[in-house]
Amino acid sequence: MTEVPDLVPARMVNEFVYCPRLFYLEWVQSRFEDSSDTVHGRYVHRRVDEGGGRMGGSSEDDPVSNARSVLVSSERLGLIAKTDIVEGFDGRVVPVEVKRGRPPKHGPAWEPELQQLAAIGLILRDSGYDCDEGQFYFAASRERTTVEFDDRLLGKTLDTVERLRRVAAADDAPPPLVDSPKCPRCSLVGICLPDETNFHTGRVEGTPRRLTPRDSEARPLYVTEQGARLGISQRRVEVKVNREVVRSDRLIDISQINLSGNVQVSTQLLQAAFREDIPVCWFSYGGWFQGIAHGLPSKHVELRRRQVAVAAQAGLPLARQMIVGKIRNSRTLLMRNSREPVDAAVGQLKELATKAAEVDSVESLLGTEGAAARSYFGSFASMLKDDRLGTFDFAGRNRRPPRDPVNCLLSFLYALLVKDLTAVVYSIGFDPYLGVYHRPRFGRPALALDLAEEFRPIIAESVVINAVNNGEVAENGFIVRAGGVALEQAARRAVIASYERRLDHEITHPTYGYKITYRRVLEVQARMLAAAMLGEIPEYVPFTTR
């Protein structure tokens, strides 16, 4: 059982009536995501949130004078609220809640808002004030509606608070609403994934609706110029080289900050990035992903607790699915892009995918994956144009350091992919260093590497094939040092651009049937992995292209 705080915010009464799962995700698990509605709501509340006016004791004859943003509570009722406005009339007090929209046609407000206002009325009554009604002010239509605090509404509200506490004390979140019209406008729909979760549990038939939010307009910022310095001025990120501003971007247009090699970043910019949940990632000059800085960790403690338990006892079923996905995607990529017969490799990969789904130990899974990798990379050169072989000749996988241009490209793109998945799992609430397939090792984001397995062929290796075959990377785009090969500056930028285009590519999700970008797929798959670890769905299903 979860320990429930003594005081329930009246706002959570609203959320619970709207959707018990929304309440649980937001209050118990402290998970929140902004939407246009929530941002607009804060804008509408900006004046009342400043506070002001007078709120005296209940024993006074005229205790209130247009008080704004008033914190009231009742330990007996177990309720707390920050009331937008409290007005006084002839010794009575009237709470006023500000709403951004218009009143519904059927009454003064929707049921969740009515019970939220009633909870505030209950608190004021318990504090000794004479309060028999409340009001709503709707900003869009600039009109007020009045709500009488009758016994029916107050009794219903107290019953809601009691049910809310029982749900909050449970170890698991309530199931999502089924095919509900409430879901599309919910700010947490991309976290909850109601239709996808219901699909996996068999609570609905047919393919899920496309409810995940559209991709943010913000994009990663990459800085590869050695000696560059990053700072912030008037909410714009400035990149300076030799004290001259060479690039300036609005902070709201940046989703990540990626620094390669000898690049400096100011404390002020780091603080701003943390406030806006923008991860800052560091790479070595050679392209190795070295670290990530983020704000405070997610408050979703239950997910990390389950993750520890799964990693220690039940990681094999998840690891099997990930490796099956990787092998199937490798086979698909080979079938689509090979320029010569590869029937033997394709057949072997099919057999190994079937075998991987049935292994009974991580050691056997490692062996099966190794055999699949040897077969796949043994035919990898068949996907590169014959007339470009030479500089781009490929005889097999090597690393640390990569000893030829193709391996250099593969290593660099794997690092970009793992960087993005590390940022994703951080944002969801995972510990990125505790995996189910890759063993924990100092400095290695094992869980991000786990999730990367199924995406290596269809994202990273696909970019390598396109970059080589389309001439996006020239033969002179590499630097050879002590037998190792690294990308030079212009080639690095070209590869990054190709990788970002791949993430923006829209594809039909093979499980859910709706169109989605690879950028969003990374998040959806990570969230479904969380759902599997939390026991909300029976198993993790990898993303496999047909």
List the helices and strands and how they pair.
Layout: E1 8-9, H1 10-18, H2 20-28, H3 36-44, E2 52-55, E3 64-74, E4 79-89, E5 92-99, H4 111-126, E6 133-138, E7 143-148, H5 151-169, H6 189-192, H7 194-201, E8 219-223, E9 229-233, E10 236-241, E11 244-250, E12 254-260, E13 264-265, H8 267-275, E14 280-283, E15 289-293, H9 301-313, H10 316-337, H11 343-356, H12 362-378, H13 405-428, H14 446-452, H15 456-469, E16 478-481, E17 484-487, H16 489-504, E18 506-508, E19 515-517, H17 518-533
Parallel strand pairs: 1-4, 5-6, 8-12, 9-13, 12-14
Antiparallel strand pairs: 2-3, 3-4, 4-5, 6-7, 9-10, 10-11, 14-15, 16-17, 18-19
Helix pairs in contact: 1-2, 1-4, 4-5, 10-11, 10-12, 10-15, 11-12, 13-14, 13-15, 13-17, 15-16
Question: What distinguishing features does this structure have?
Answer:
single chain, 546 residues, alpha/beta, seven-stranded mixed β-sheet, four-stranded mixed β-sheet, 19 strands, 19% strand
Describe the structure.
- The chain has 546 residues and is α/β, with parallel strands linked by helices.
- It has helices at 10-18, 20-28, 36-44, 111-126, 151-169, 189-192, 194-201, 267-275, 301-313, 316-337, 343-356, 362-378, 405-428, 446-452, 456-469, 489-504, 518-533, and strands spanning 8-9, 52-55, 64-74, 79-89, 92-99, 133-138, 143-148, 219-223, 229-233, 236-241, 244-250, 254-260, 264-265, 280-283, 289-293, 478-481, 484-487, 506-508, 515-517.
- The strands form five sheets. Strands 1, 2, 3, 4, 5, 6 and 7 form a seven-stranded mixed beta sheet that branches. Strands 8-12-14-15 form a four-stranded mixed beta sheet. The protein has a four-stranded mixed beta sheet with strand order 11-10-9-13.
- A hairpin with a 2-residue loop joins β4 (79-89) and β5 (92-99).
